[in-house]
Amino acid sequence: MATRFVMSGGNFCYSGGPTTPGVWSSASQYTSITNAAPAGAVDSFAFTNGVQAFNCTTPFLGGDFPELIAGYRVYFNALSNNAALIGFFSNSGSSQCDVRMNGAGNLFFTRNGTVIGGPSLYALTPNVWTFIEFKATFSTSGTGLCEVRVNGVTVLSVPNVTNATTTALGALCSFYGPTTPAYIRDCYVVDGGAPSAFSLTSVDSTGDYTGTITGGAGNAYAGYRFTITGFTNAANNIVGGICTASTATTLSFAVTTITETHAGSAANYGQVGYMGDVKMVELYPNGPGVNSAWTPNVGPFSITSVANASGGDTVYTGTITGGASNAYVGYNFVMSTFAHGANNGTFACVASTATTLTLANASGVSDTTGSAAFQNIVQIGINQSGTRPNGDVAYLYDSNPGDISDFAHTPITLTGSVLGVCHLSSMRKDDAGTREVAQVCLSGSATEQGPTYSLGNTYQYWLDFIEVDPNTGAGWTASGVNGATFGIKEIS
Fold this sequence. Notes:
Blueprint: E1 3-7, E2 26-27, E3 32-34, E4 46-48, E5 54-57, E6 67-76, E7 83-89, E8 95-101, E9 107-111, E10 114-117, E11 130-137, E12 144-150, E13 153-161, E14 172-177, E15 182-191, E16 198-203, E17 208-212, E18 225-229, E19 241-246, E20 250-253, E21 260-268, E22 285-292, E23 295-296, E24 301-308, E25 314-318, E26 332-336, E27 345-352, E28 356-359, E29 370-374, E30 396-397, E31 404-409, E32 421-427, E33 436-443, E34 446-454, E35 460-466, H1 478-483, E36 485-490
Antiparallel strand pairs: 1-15, 2-5, 3-4, 4-15, 5-14, 6-11, 6-15, 7-8, 7-14, 8-9, 9-10, 11-12, 12-13, 16-17, 16-21, 17-20, 18-19, 18-21, 19-20, 22-31, 23-30, 24-25, 24-29, 25-28, 26-27, 26-29, 27-28, 31-36, 32-35, 33-34, 33-36
C-alpha cells in the first residue's frame, strides 16, 4: 500500500476557495476555507460550505486500484437522511460505492445510490468532530467488501457484495460535508497495494526488473509504489519507486539502474491499512537548507528609515519591490544592520506597500539605514494570514539542469507516530518547451528524489509522498522530520 492523497484544513491554499490546482480536482460551488472551524480539531482551519451540502474530490490518485481506504475528520450540525460521507469513483468518474448516513445517524453503503449493506447499529452524533474511515475492495461480481470505521472502531463490515459498476477499480475519492454548516479536514486516501512481495531475478540498465509478478499482466501495477531490495548494486535497490508498467514477469520504473542478475524482492511501499485518527500538520520553510542554487526574484530590500507605528508595529521605509497591496503579508522578514538593536531580528509582516514593510515588532524605534531580507521567500502562509499562494509576486526561478534549492522548516511539535511526509510545491514554467523538475528531501547523508514532473504554464501544487526516512530506511520520527530539508531540483 501507499498513501495517495492527504489534505489538512487548507490553510496553505487560496483563502477564497480550495480548488488550487493539484489540491482538489473539483469542489462544489459553495465550498470555501475557514479559519474559524469549531473547536476540537487541534487548529481552526477547515473546508466548509455556505448554503448547501458540499463535496471535495481528489485529483487522479495515480493508478487504478482494486482497493482503496479513505478517511477524514468531519463536523456537521444535524443528521441528514441519505447523506453521502465518503465515495469512491473510477478513473472515468463513474460512481463505484460510498458510505452514507440515514436520518437517525446510522451508516450504510450504496453502489451508485443503490443500497448494498447496512444500516449499522452505531449512530453518528452531530455537533462533534468525528473521524470516519471507509474501505472498499471493489467487485462487479459479488466478491467485494465495504467497511466503515468511526474513531478507530469498525462499526459496519459487509463482505461478498457487488460494489462497483463498470470496472472493479477505484481512482478518485470524494469527501462530503453532509449538512449546512459542515466542516471537513485531515483527509487521506491509501491504495490497496499489491497482494504480496514479488521475487525478482534480474534488472537491466533502464529500470526493468524481471521476476514472478503475480497479477501484473496488462500494466495492472502501473502507478503502484514498490521498494526493491536484495540486489548487489545499491542503485538497483530503489525505495518507493513508482511502477510505470508491469507484466506477469516484469516491473518497470523510470530510473537508471545497473544490469545485474541476482535474487531480489519487490515489496509494497508505505502505509498499510487504515491510518486511524490522524492529524495533518503543515510545516513551512523558515531558513536555508544545504543547497541554494535557485534565484529569488526579489529581495533583499534597502531600508532608509524606521518608525514605530500605532498599535505596536514598526514601519520600515525603503524600496520594497513587489510589496504593493499587502503582497508580503504573512512572510517573516529578517531585519539587520540597523544602529538600534531593537530594530534587528525576525518579524512577521502585517502590511506592505511599494515603499513600506509594517512588521510585528513592538519594540522598534526611530532609525535610519538597514536591510530587510525574506526569512524564506517560499514560506507563504507561515503566519496563517493573507491570501496565498501569491503567484508571481515572490518566487524562486532556475534554468540550469541539476540545480537544487532546499530549505529548513518549522518543527513538528505534536506527539505521536509520524506516518509520512507529503512534500507540496507550487510551480509553473515561464518559457517555451518542456521544463521538468523533481522534489527532493535531504535527510542525513541520504537524498530522496521524487517523480519527475513536466510543468505547465499555470501554477499547480505537486505532491510527493515520502513515507520512509531516506536516511534510515525506516519510518519517520519527529526528530528525523525536523532534521530533514526539502526542496526542488531542476531536471531540464
